[in-house]
Design brief:
The complex is a heterodimer of chains A (419) and B (104). Chain A has 419 residues and is an alpha/beta fold. In chain B, strands 1, 2, 3, 4, 5 and 6 form a six-stranded mixed β-sheet that branches. The termini of chain B are far apart. The chains are: A alpha/beta (419), B alpha/beta (104).
């Protein structure tokens, strides 16, 4: 397993380009199954889950070509199999996103249940129940969801919990259904909106994306188009926090500042000067130490749970006491123990982390436990005295494209040790 | 419709002109089967190619495999940067660099 070695030091300075959002790219690649004709998807991040999705589509017989701008061209006219095998689905739960579009366009889909997901658990049931409401005949047997339908019909679907992939799967399925579908209690994340924009560019009639009620008027067919995936708001936020923690000045470009209001507000509270353009942001800390901020995670447009760990790291070195409350996921403070090993003063009380900022952290061997936890450890290491070795960085590689190259480009002392 | 041609520049030296893409890969493979002697080492100049994509990369890998199967050497000059970038995306950059020569 690769490791990162980071030597804490001075402020980060410079420019960094933000990649496309993986959580938008994955559903959009799944949406190519709906296109009658070749389609290309641009601004796709170079991440393992994207390669897995290409392998998944390629395994079905679909023709995939990566062009020299790194756009992925997809031609579904060569499809032979309507099947997502366990070997791929177990490595990437988002594989279930092919279920809705494959069933809606081709009338059949056999998709493995995601690994570790018990039959009857809510996340998978949301997809299945919604498709059944649209007329699909679905059995779950042998670890596979076997779905069949002549043509789906429009339906009113009330999601009992807010689910991003559930909303996306059903929205895609509804685009080719006979009649109008209504998804209520839909996820409002920008990645859902991006998928809706892509579907509409393909000829779909989706309205209300970004609100809790999405209306989809089914059409006879969708056509191929080119679509550029929206920038990654969490990667953007992570580099801004890195600049704030190190007292530096960083410009993030090719991003979408509108998607980061809650994060930007907290960074300003922390003492950062932030300048915003159409597709760029500059955070300038002018060498100051950040002030501690209180953070309360909630679904979009509130403060994102995917930025919680980074702000916990920021509060660890900030002036004062910051309270971080996690309301979206349970057990999402795995990074706290590792930060404590670096000298952070954090007290956990249920879903709340009370952080008393210290002047300096100390480098230590630490272990990444999940994607965002890993990012927080890298950020902490950038301001720690001495050397930090971050182990199990395959987590961070799932969400951050070339993180060591980007941070090195900003002056960070970071290098990868291959396994 | 894009086109591509392999020209012989010497006994074991070849030059590709045109696109190295999905639309030309099949034709280039057929041309190479007539021109290349897989049991002898060859060099291929790609500096005159225009566009490339992952199908072009796949063709290059096929040529590498054939050379390897016959214990022969393959050297590529003028490797397009875009092809190296695509190889990077596929985690094949190191493999591609084993046949890349900087000398034309």
């Amino acid at each position: 397993m690769d490791k990162l070695i980071i030597n804490g030091g001075g402020p980060l300075n410079g420019e960094v380009r933000i990649a496309g959002a993986k959580n938008a790219a994955l559903p959009i690649l799944a949406a190519t199954l709906l296109a009658d004709g070749p389609m290309s998807v641009g601004n796709v991040p170079h991440l393992h889950d994207i390669t897995t999705t290409m392998e998944l589509l390629g395994g079905m017989g679909i023709t995939l070509v990566v062009d020299e701008k790194m756009s992925i061209e997809v031609d579904t006219s060569t499809i032979k199999e309507f099947y997502a095998p366990y070997e791929l689905v177990k490595t990437m739960r988002a594989s279930i996103l092919v279920l809705g579009p494959m069933l809606s366009r081709f009338g059949q889909a056999d998709v493995s249940l995601p690994g570790g997901c018990a039959i009857g658990s809510r996340p998978v049931n949301l997809h299945i129940d919604g498709l059944r409401a649209m007329g699909a005949d679905i059995d779950v047997e042998g670890g596979y969801i076997r779905a069949r339908a002549k043509r789906l019909h429009g339906a009113r679907i009330v999601m009992d919990i807010v689910s991003v992939t559930g909303t996306e799967n059903l929205m895609m399925a509804a685009t080719l259904a006979d009649g109008t579908s209504l998804i209520e209690n839909a996820a409002r994340e920008p990645e859902v909106v991006d998928l809706a924009n892509c579907l509409n560019k393909m000829g779909a009639k989706v309205s209300g994306a970004g609100t809790s009620t999405i209306t989809i008027q089914g059409v006879e067919k969708l056509t191929g188009t080119h679509y550029d995936v929206l920038p990654d708001r969490i990667e953007t936020g992570t580099y801004l926090v890195a600049a704030a923690m190190t007292g530096g000045r960083v410009k993030v470009r090719d991003t979408c500042p509108d998607l980061l209001d809650a994060v930007t507000q907290k960074l300003r509270e922390a003492g950062a000067d932030i300048e915003v353009g159409k597709d760029w942001m500059i955070l300038d800390m002018q060498g100051r130490r950040p002030k501690a901020v209180d953070v309360h995670t909630a679904p979009y447009p509130a403060f994102p749970t995917d930025m919680q760990a980074q702000f916990t790291a920021l509060n660890s070195v900030a002036e004062g006491v910051g309270i971080v409350t996690e309301t979206v996921f349970e057990n999402r403070f795995m990074h706290v123990q590792e930060l404590q090993r670096m000298g952070a003063k954090i007290r956990l009380e249920g879903n709340t982390a009370i952080c008393t900022g210290v002047e300096r952290l100390t480098g230590a061997p630490v272990m990444a436990t999940d994607l965002r936890a890993s990012a927080s450890l890298v950020l902490a290491a950038l301001v720690a005295d001495g050397e930090t070795l971050v182990d199990r960085i395959y987590h961070i590689d799932r969400g951050y494209q070339n993180i060591e190259e980007k941070l090195s480009g900003l002056g960070g002392k970071i290098r990868r040790i291959p396994s | 419709m894009s086109e591509a041609t392999i020209f012989r520049e010497g006994a074991f030296h070849f030059r590709v002109e045109g696109d190295l893409t999905f639309s030309t890969a099949r034709s280039l493979l057929a041309q190479s089967q007539e021109l290349f002697n897989p049991s002898q080492g060859i060099s291929i100049d790609l500096s005159h190619t225009k566009r490339t994509d992952s199908a072009g990369l796949a063709l290059l890998l096929e040529w590498m495999k054939r050379a390897q199967d016959h214990g022969a050497s393959l050297e590529v000059t003028g490797m397009p940067q875009a092809l190296i970038a695509i190889a990077g995306l596929c985690n094949l950059e190191d493999l591609l660099l084993t046949v890349t020569s900087k000398t034309p």
